[in-house]
Amino acid sequence: MALIVQKYGGTSVGTVERLQAVAQRIKKTAQNDNRVVVVVSAMGKTTDGLINLAKEITSNPSRREMDMLLSTGEQVSIALLSMAIQELGQPAISLTGAQVGIKTEAEHSKARILKIETKRIEKHLSEGKIVVVAGFQGISSLEELEITTLGRGGSDTSAVALAASLKADFCEIYTDVPGILTTDPRIVPEARLMTEITSDEMLELASLGAKVLHPRAVEIARNYGMPLVVRSSWSDEPGTKVISPIPKPRSLEGLEITKAVDAVEFDANQAKVALLRVPDKPGIAASLFGEIARQNVDVDLIIQSIHEGNSNDIAFTVMKQVSAKAEAVAEAIAPSLRSNPQAINEAEITIEKHIAKIAIAGAGMIGRPGIAAKIFSILAGVGINIEMISTSEVKVSCVIDEQDCDRAIEALCNAFEIKNSPMYLKSQESLNETEINVPPVRGIALDNNQARFAIRHIPDKPGMAAKIFGALAEDNISIDMIIQSQRVKIINDLPTRDIAFTVAKADFHNAKLALEKLTQTLGCDEVLVDSDIAKVSIVGSGMVGHPGVAARFFEALAKEKINIQMIATSEIKVSCVVKKEEGVKALKVLHEAFNLAGKDKIEVPA
Ligand code: ADP
Ligand code: ASP
Ligand code: MG
Predict the structure, then answer these.
(1) Distance 101 CA to ligand 2 centre (A)
(2) Are both 239 and 279 inside the same structural domain?
(3) Per the confidence metrics, is the pTM higher than 0.70?
């Protein structure tokens, strides 16, 4: 007899008819000799409606009262679903997060799950009942029963956490699309269904804007090796499997507060090429990386950020052996940039052959901004200057001077308590063995909920990134796409650099306040903000060791004359910031450029 956790999202239970259809499906699962625990979200757009009600009363509601309010949405749907199941003659019982004992941090509106009591659920299961649990909610203390919520979209996380705690055979996420698609079918109806995706890829996609799964749900599935499937509650199609590597056994205590960093990685065989002051116009990245790809040179990290006078710096790393080739390409392209009136005699190429890339990796750093801040402060603590930063949801990489590599590894291993020896960065090995033919691009995501910050003229010395991102982490603000300028500007005889990064719009206001306070004390010049941006990203573990993927990305945007404001890459993703109004177009042309369209159009139920 298998134990299955099924989660039904808001649209799947949006009406009485839908609740009844879902009840039928649950009954069928139970009749096939399974024990079933069901997690439900609030009906339809209930949560949005409750938020709007609160807004009518106050622009700044207390987070405690918001949790009290929002958690009611799920209480309605569990009761109704339980009644609908009972109506079919199948015993069922509904339970709130508090009744189950879903214990979370005392952090209203974004609490992480610490532990789930399973006794009461197991008792009801053994009585032959289907247990219907409210998603998205928990309690911060068994004594005071303070209600907490997990953050928008958090019912997925409740479901996978329950599945892990109950040691279920698998967890099914039922939603309004046939599974995980190459992109959001509401924007690109030709999106193609995937039969499977690795949890690493899904983590990136989910955190870059694909809201079909809550990233923390993927993290739990990955940490506990919980088989996870995303399917439509409208059909019997098998959906998409999220594949996780077999994990090390781990405790169910501190469920979402696991060790943040699993590994320290390094690669001392890299060189950095930078093009400074190139014109800010469409097509520059495309011509540079297009030519590099034609030379079959594999590029690792790429960053680009815009600067004063509307010119860009582009920097990238390659393996040392091919750095001369990469430099030659950059030199060959430079004259055409220099002849541009916007950049007369300004474009400049620098190459640095003595650099190393070091990185910390671990799914536990998702949504924990303090971890990135910590790597910067550890490096600063041992006097190491950071030349380039690249972040993804599960990794923070820094380019540093080759001479500092050993010291950096030692300091990071000590600070993050990494006992095993640091891994030489060789991402190809981490690919799932069954997935040798993984496509270079698995999916594309668009995120319209980001804002960009740029801090000008930060003194170029160790410790500045640590202070900036440390201050943001203190306010629990997650950052993404951190880009440090490659050019150095001398101000009052001291070298300075700019740092740009993106944050979620929801954190925009707090981030602005924190930064304005900070820049005065750090002696930086000004903080520039832009919330009219969109971030488009391609994700795929097959892009490792596959030259030309980034070039194709930039060429597709250049063809449509879409200007790229920022570029940041990690091993398995390329992200670009473009103007907000060009986001949808960018997503569409990329989907086409990587031939991701399926045969049929996806229809999303209204
Ligand atoms: P639920 O209410 O079931 O939790 P959500 O609205 O949270 O559903 O998530 C499902 C939606 O995610 C889909 O309707 C689709 O618009 C959107 N989506 C975004 N990116 C993707 C993707 N790559 N694959 C599938 N759906 C996606
Ligand atoms: N009802 C909550 C929300 O709308 C949780 C969820 O649906 O996952 O965000
Ligand atoms: Mg959802």
Answers:
(1) 19
(2) no
(3) yes
